[in-house]
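Anyone? Bumping this.
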Amino acid sequence: MQNIQSYISENKNRFLDELFQLLRIPSISADPAYKENMAQMAEAIKNQCTQIGMDTVEICPTAGFPVVFAQKIIDPKLPTILVYGHYDVQPATPLDLWITPPFEPTLRDEKIYARGSCDDKGQVFMHLKALEYMISSHSLPCNVKVLIEGEEEVGSDNLPIFVKNNTKKLSADIILISDTAIIANDIPSIDCGLRGLSYVEVEVTGPSRDLHSGVYGGAVANPINILCDMISKLHDKNRKITIPHFYDEVELVSISERKLLSEAPFDIENYKNDLSIQDVMGETGYSTTERASIRPTLDVNGIWGGYIGQGAKTVLPSQAFAKISMRLVPNQDSGTITKLFQSYFENLAPAGVSVKVKPHHGGEAYVLPIDSIGYLAAEKAMEITFGKKPVPTRGGGSIPIVALFEKELKIKSILLGFGLDTDAIHSPNEHYGIFNLLKGIETIPYFYKNFVEMSNNK
Amino acid sequence: MQNIQSYISENKNRFLDELFQLLRIPSISADPAYKENMAQMAEAIKNQCTQIGMDTVEICPTAGFPVVFAQKIIDPKLPTILVYGHYDVQPATPLDLWITPPFEPTLRDEKIYARGSCDDKGQVFMHLKALEYMISSHSLPCNVKVLIEGEEEVGSDNLPIFVKNNTKKLSADIILISDTAIIANDIPSIDCGLRGLSYVEVEVTGPSRDLHSGVYGGAVANPINILCDMISKLHDKNRKITIPHFYDEVELVSISERKLLSEAPFDIENYKNDLSIQDVMGETGYSTTERASIRPTLDVNGIWGGYIGQGAKTVLPSQAFAKISMRLVPNQDSGTITKLFQSYFENLAPAGVSVKVKPHHGGEAYVLPIDSIGYLAAEKAMEITFGKKPVPTRGGGSIPIVALFEKELKIKSILLGFGLDTDAIHSPNEHYGIFNLLKGIETIPYFYKNFVEMSNNK
């Protein structure tokens, strides 16, 4: 295994060239304008799989964007690792805030700047190159399957059906996912918990047409003012969510576990400086780390209504809209939460308006026991390559598919991510450190080796 | 004067042709993209003035869009009427709600559909054609000046300086403005009060970059949620505005005057049906008519922030924005109100965000005594052409320049409008009835005649 380091240094430039080719494809799943680029991207992933020596390589259609599947079965008796990732990316707006264009990958300060560089093309690419190394050096110690989907950023709507219809094809002993972050380049960590998600879009309609605010202002309900009132009522003064029964099923994290989590390095001043904020804000009674991991939250992700062009227009608009998402914790069911939100929100509306709540997508929270073989194999791999034992953390983000895999395939997932929270994923100037990219490629083969050895000793 | 009716019926088709030419020019003052159309529009108004026989016709530059000035002085000893109007229009968005394009004027059900058909090109055109009749038939009984500006829809920012620098040029005995509405085609009315305006744009900034709502959600202030909280706090549960000292100077309308105003025909069921709303909403203790006329109000005219494209994006945005306007009543000073808003709104912000309030424009409220010669001359003119005495009303809209004329030129304005509240001004499918257009052309010469006669008898 000592050869992995020399393999990386010999091939580094080619790796970057190949990754840049993937990053140049604007595979934005949320926007129908990029449909052809999505097909192009699936094809590019398929070609990568073929090129590195996978045996079966397929583009599998779904009702939405296709999934790319590949496998290499060296011996049915050996354990099987299923690698999951996604080839779609978030929209790149607002474009004017990017220093270099989102789909023209650029190197600056040893970082790759491009939409998808970290989330998730760069991290998927680590797996492909780690496999390339193991296959070409005949050191692949087990069977491997690769499943790269194209709808993660829009809620993986069509993956559940694909998974249900292909349980045999996807059978494995462990799922390996790199779509999360470590604490710092000198503080490796492994996400052993993820929040769930309920995402809705709301529409408030007042008068049936846009009105002159001078003629009607003050006399009829203004849907923007009303929407603001309604959104404001979703939190109380302690920033607790006011939806009845919202907290009923929330996993109660014990004092001792909260103490353990609080030991992960965290500097509130650095955090505030990084974001240029004077103060943090959140649910009373919880630390910043806890608010962003073990507690459920509600955020407006977008809002619009009325005149938003240059200058002034004295309109009282007919409609106002918002996209609202809730992050959920273990035991909260996203379907139930969506329904609770829906009925509460609709009831907040006064008589002068009507309200529609459209569910977008959801997903369940997930917890990985830190005494499982998967966790231990990942821990040991990181300890070798980083020279330091990783810290277990709870991530605030959601990878809904992880809970689905557990339910449908009965397989646990390991979140072996190599990004950083400062990588600006979902934001302008997303980037991924070359250190992180190469450290990922280096670490993955150790995971394979450790996992096979620990499985044998079970 | 009996000839005005035959003049109108002989020239009706030409009138429509000429007006349609004016309506085809997209003279949107709020959007810099239409700058050339604004110049084209000023030229078209100038040509109309020349064509109808005005003596001096000029395009006068300002720091913004120019004003068109024209005059015909038949005898310096006679009274002078100054006609004011505007050639700019509101933006036409949302375009997809127009049945026929906003700048392709179309006749349907005896109405002219186009942006500006009522507000204010159609109503300016009535004056030009009434003057054409009086000049060509040698029946103009006094001097006339015409002042048509191009920035009314964006706050008339540059007109005050023009007025101050040209007090002699603009000297007159009365100002005649058609930019308001009558109650119904069989219920003529004259606006004897207008609300003032304070228009601001607010910007709430949280973290210095867009964040992933999963990683940061719940731990840092989300500027959209905060903006909603802040907007929500601008009204109390009785829909009174909460800004301290906001109501201090509000004109107290006497019970007897409120009683008189309440006698103007108003059907709440028709009102609700017209707007397709289940109920009205406004300040406790006041009727719908009062809320929209004698009481000050606050409306959000536009709001935006975060991801507003198709699909879902789990972003916690760096910024959120809103355009907010307040309608003011007599004695409220728009500059003072803007400052009160600014300091209150800035204080509503929690520590996790910073707030900027940018004043857009403002204007003062206005009241016209119903025993003035101007009012009486207009009342008598309408009584002749509608066969019914008009009702005095208080309009909810703002024409800030009216208060400015009074202050700088010491001249009262008569708001002799012929639109209808249902004309959808500022909305998609703005229209103006041919009845209203022609009734305006018919009524105006009677106003001139009455005003001159009543001035002589003073």
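Late reply, but here is one note on the structure posted above: The first strand of chain A starts at residue 56 and ends at 60.
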